[in-house]
Amino acid sequence: MPTIDFETSVAEFLALGRRLQATLPLTGERVLDELTAWYRDKRIEGAAIDEDADMLLLQWGATRPLIVVEPTDLRRLADKDLRFAEQELQYLDVTRQVFAAGEDEDAEFDDSAVQMSISLGFGPADGSEPMSNLWIHTPQEIASVVKKYANTPFVLSLLNRPAATVTIVVGLCG
Predict the structure, then answer these.
(1) Is 84 helix (H, G, I), strand (E, B) or coil?
(2) Which residues face 59 on adjacent strands?
(3) Least confident of 30-34, 60-64, 69-73
(4) Which residues 6+ apart lie within 8 Å of 114 measured at CB?
(5) How many Å separate Cα 127 from the centre of its chain?
(6) Peptide linkage before 25 cis (omega within 30 of 0)
(7) Which of 71, 67, 3 is nearest to 31 (CA)?
(8) Taking phi first (over 0 means left), then psi (-120 to 50 degrees means alpha), and beta for anything else, what does residue 29 get?
(9) Any residues with CB less than 8 A from the CB of 18 and at least 6 apart, and which?
(10) Strand 89-98 and strand 114-124: pairing?
(11) Which of 25, 40, 66, 117 is the most exposed place for a label (fewest CB within 10 A)?
(12) For residue range 64-85, what is the model confidence (pLDDT) as tens digits?
């Protein structure tokens, strides 16, 4: 299985995001397929699967999305540069969370772990949205967790709808 260094993984994710944005409108199913394939096929140096240092997070509910025009590395922006939508939207999100500490025993999760995420916004939230998440800890869990995710009634109602907004970002976890 191909292994890439951490910064190359970030560059690959942003390139994947640009390719996806070029084929708008996006659906949750398409994003889920693309990110699970990438997770299955690429390992990141220093991010041990057996230590939960490289996982996928599937989320849904309501959120005020970050406003970005193109795939963006938030690590290069100041907090004052971030803007969020005024209105909460129903959303689906697929995030790859990576802690590529490798042999560095002094590495702190909050200082170096990143989330590479694609969030899709749909219609306005009304406050009744169930909010939850599921983790995929290893590539072997993809099929079973994706099945559970796709069969969640709220997710199922949005999975094949075209997204109204797309937010593709890389940011620190802490």
Answers:
(1) strand
(2) 93, 133
(3) 69-73
(4) 10, 75, 97, 98, 170, 171, 172, 173
(5) 23
(6) yes
(7) 71
(8) alpha
(9) 70, 71
(10) antiparallel
(11) 25
(12) 998 988 998 988 877 777 888 8
